[in-house]
Amino acid sequence: MGVFMQSVSLFNKVFIIGLTLVFSGGWIIDLWAQPLQSGITVGKGGNKMTSQDEKSGQRDSAPKEGRIVLIGASYTRGWNIPEIAGMKVINKGVDGNQSFEMLSRFQNDVIAYNPKAVLIWGFINDIHRSKREDIQSTIVKAQESIKEMVKMSQSKGIVPILGTEVTIRHADELIENLMGWVGSLLGKESYQDYVNKHVIAVNQWIKEFAREEGILLLDFQPALSDVKGVRKKEFATKDGSHISAEGYEKMTSYVTEKMKRDFKK
Predict the structure, then answer these.
(1) pTM of the model
(2) How do residues 147-191 score in pLDDT, each as one tens digit?
(3) What is the pLDDT of residues 193-223, one digit of tens each?
(4) Distance CA 258, CA 253 (A)
């Protein structure tokens, strides 16, 4: 009887754990898909705040000339850069954000800080989450969101800076590499190739838009890519998407030199 009761108790525990996994599946998948980082809390409106924000409060007291806001998604949030061109960085990256979501919080997360400049960077989640049959309208919406953020910045005397998106690579796993190899032999387009071709196309639009409008451009994509336009292995985490520590070091080095040379205070 004792063995029987222990078996029933074990079954109940497994059953409860199974139900928990089923009903919280979306939450678990979201955590798996995003890098876990320390020092992150949720601010007003549900936006994640960096520890830097917490120390200085919801609004930075530094003078306007000494601030630059970075707005984007998880790539932005993971970039631990304290200052750019002598300006204190206010990091407003929020995991999973699409460009229209960046636009929706632009007033609170950028304009309200009255910074000297803002780096507008990121649209890859728009591509990830779009249905393939809707990709062209998704791209147009992303372009309109970027243009509106630039317009809002300029209307408040904030210098807009645009960044190109970075491409992705296959996850660093045997099965992923094998599938990619087989797919290439069969002439099939991989998911990574599908995403990258749209990233490169929108990046080309960003370059042209920046040139036409006289906006400073930070061209991250070639800085982290090989000759084929794919993210170099050392600049990606094992999932093939997020940026590695070496990748952020490369970005910081590139931005430091580019801003020193081209940013006009």
Answers:
(1) 0.74
(2) 999 999 999 999 999 999 999 998 865 455 555 555 555 567 889
(3) 999 999 999 999 999 999 999 999 999 999 9
(4) 9
Residue ranges per structural domain of the chain = 1-33, 37-262
CATH topology for 37-262 is Rossmann fold (3.40.50)
**How far from 97 is each of 1, 71, 158, CA to CA, in Å?**
55, 10, 22
